[in-house]
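Researcher: We're teaching a course module on how sequence relates to structure. For the next exercise, students receive a sequence and then see the predicted structure as tokens, so they can try to spot secondary structure elements on their own. Here is the exercise chain.
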Amino acid sequence: MYTNSDEFSKETEIDKKIRELRKERNKWQTINIEQTRINRQNDRQEMFYEYVGKICETLPVPDFEPLSKDEDFSTEYILTLADMHYGAKFKSENNEYSPEIAKNRLEFLTGEVECFVKKHKVGKLHVVSLGDTIQGILRVSDLKLNDSSIVKATVEISRLIALFLRSISTYVEVDYYHVPTANHTQLRPLGTKASELADEDLEYVIGNYIKDLCFKNERINVHLADEGKQYIEIPLHDYEIIAMHGHTIKNMESSIKDLSMLRRSFLDYLILGHYHSGKELPSFEGCCSDTEILVSPSFAGSDPYSDSIMKGNKAAVKIYGFNFIYGHNETYKIILN
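Model: And here is the predicted structure for the students to work with:
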């Protein structure tokens, strides 16, 4: 005989089954949500790689002109790009700077390099970027100077430098070197101090991005530093030449001696950025040439801070000539503002 107790027991069993089914459905919904999130993240990464690939394809190889016939390379030249601070926007007493001005300066520099290459019959030009390629956020006050986000500035300046290299490769072979570290390109998450996370540096990203953008151009060779090093070596004639940003140099006058001891190899030339003013400091004398520290001026030029301490310099790049016998014996300054 069927009773109310049996009916109650039956309903309780049904409710229990419903709860179990609902719980199981929630589990699958949670799994599906997590899987959707992972798929979306993977799709975003694939879109990013496709976007980078499309950008690479938008840098076609130019119509090359014949190289200079003077190919004995008795004198080779290094052009320095230092402290571009792309993304900054400011106006000082004698200088104004912005991303648009940086672009215009690179276009102007392209024309100047073309004239230089033809005048001096240069078959190969070494170009070195000496760091602080973007303004970054080194301190809170940098937020007032930045005209764009760090990510946007990183992509834009990488592309602009690659376009500059592409343009000058029309007339000359280019060996491009990119220093691995600087101070303004450091990432300092969670209140970390300067150089505390030395590997977190956007110079690494910029250098590799430029290399990817130029990989189809047979006249451009992009050289990046070995892992873990703060400098990059520039093989030129038989001289030992290294380039670095310079923010870790404690004593400039003794830097060649200190680095020679560190490397256990005698250094002939040290090329630096960071100091925003051009200098040539002889260190030692050899049989035919001097050992020198060559400090490149700033691409960005003087800013309100340099005005406040009255140490501004014209925005400029330098081209150093190295003779096979006499070493560094030529210097050319191209003023940009």
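Model: If you want an answer key for the exercise: The two ends are 104 Å apart (CA to CA). Residues 302 and 312 are 5 Å apart (CA to CA).
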